[in-house]
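Today's session is about reading a structure prediction critically. Students often jump straight to the picture, but the first step is always the sequence itself: look for stretches that repeat, for charged clusters, for runs of hydrophobic residues. Only then move on to the predicted structure, which in these notes is written as discrete structure tokens rather than atom positions. Here is the chain we will use throughout the hour.
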Amino acid sequence: MPVCRRGLALGLVLASVAAACSSISPDELADRYSAPDISRIDPDAVTRLPPPTDSSTPGGADPLSIPLDVEKAICTFDTDAVPVGVECGTITVPPRHDPAVDPVSIAFAIFRAKTAAPEPDPVVYLHGGPGGSVLANADRLYLSVVDPFIADRDVILFDQRGAGESSALPICHEAYLLDDEFFASATAHVDIAADYTDLVAGCGERLSNDNGIDLGSYNSESHADDVVELMYALGVDRYNLYGNSYGTRLAQTIMRDHPEGIRAVILSGVYPIEENLIGSVPETYEAALDHVFQACVDSPICGEALPDPWAAFEQVVAILDAQPMPVEIPVSQDSTYDMQFNGDDLINGFHSLLYTAATAAMIPDTLIDYLDGDVSRLERIARDGVFDIGEVAAYVAVQCREEVPFTTPAQLDEAAASTSPYERINLAPGLIGVDLIEICASWDTGPSAPAENDPVSWGAPTLVMSGGIDPITPPWWADALAARLPAATLVASADLGHDSDEGLCASGIMTEFIDDPGRPLATGCASIATGPLVDDRPVGLVPELTAETFSGSFDVKPGPGTQLIDVELPDWWGEAYVDEDVWWRSLDQLDPTALVLRAGPIDRDELFWYLDVEASGDLKASALPSGLGSEWSRFVFSTAGLDLVVYERSDDNSMNVTMIGYDDELPLLERNILLPVVRSISP
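Below is the predicted structure for this chain, in token form.
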């Protein structure tokens, strides 16, 4: 359940990447993988792994007698984008058992507290996955992950072994060989499952035969040992844990194996050690989606437009099964990938939207618009929902050791079912169904100890946070965990999804808890919402190509030389940063259309951040519209996805104003919104 992108993540449903489409042609794929009868795996024929044995007991390894050396490193993210000092580095962990195995490098970043005398116990963030990472995008996670604690404490982020910057395992390229079958054809995912299973099993055989890799060292116990080694190397004796999603399972492993250094624990999107994702996700997904649908029915506007969202969901799935919707997915600056968005993709897309409150609110609108003939919102979901969210090898290694051996026959039956739309969430390329059990027979991850499925015991202060529409770690898991931890405080937010730590309310509660874990918490803000929010919008929302304006100001000389200028701005949702202000159109959470005001000359790389693909090259100068003074210049930049129009002012109050949008909307957005903003700025 990675945190690669907090706005929309596919969690443990490891989707392959349409952007990483294979160079193998469809004809070659057909020849290579064709079979007389490709069908769903027969649960009775699944190879079961040996049951857990007492020969391996958890408990974690003692830290090394001498701390590991800390090597400084250049941060891989934009440190200028965060308002505090940051230091990055690595430690190299030697193999625990076989000296022939390659050592593992653990990469980390320390965000330094704003105070000159910080508290001695930093907050250590444990990201999701397994196989997720945080360091590459740590600057974008600052507000949600770092900011709640940074006033008085350092915050430490690191990538877990096997992914991201920390000695990633070799890529399971086999997992992407069928991308064209999954995403560029009308083939149902169920008809490709057997071939996909064989391919990922082959990856396991390849990695298991690599003498430099010990797949048995990529698991929660080893991740927990790495945290202890990292703290020891950094000279930290006491620390706080903040786990999200799979990070909560890792936190519980540290609580079990290394409790001596922990001051307090925050668990968000709770994944208890004793619970099993295999077979559990369809029920969780259905319950979460049911809450959103009921909220729509209870809303006068949404309910009138969509009186039976359950039937509408099944209707749209059936339509897309029969005739997938073509969608061009930008994959580079100049090219797109022709996706065929089918019923399986809609099921996975809606599951993804339930991770956050704002994207979950889009679900009824998407059905309303689609049935009314407007597919633009569904196209945005398709474009935003197909991307690489984690390392397949690092994910499978953990699941094969900690989940598959404990899967019960009942869970296996649930994971194999595919009769309802909700059950189809288990289908490949997601790795939470019977496919995973079949794959694990080829992955040498070592024996599993029985205690890997036992509930953790813990008596120190713990903040347990859950979302009422969490589609993968259900709120009842958090309820059960909090009920048996004597010092736990449960914060259940009915309007939040898997990211139950999002928003000002959750942030404030976390800050208060870490400041003083022993005192009672003020959690009333979390109980204000009685259910998920839905957008009360009319049917067939027309994209806004104009906007009301208001009189505002912009600082063209941020810092000590502050100088505000008057400007007319669109009545959109705004964000203010050190040297730029951003105004988002926000038709929904995935609408990328924005107006950006930046102080100083054009910074091409900063503007390219807003595009949906990696971009390079120079902006192209173009003619100015009539009526603008010589202090202004106009530039344009186009990609296969979003385009830019930039107006730069080069006098003493230099600045630039940019509109980002799709090519078919940008001309009107420039005329109706961008140019009035530019004209309102006095020389």
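Discussion point for the tutorial: The first strand starts at residue 71 and ends at 73.
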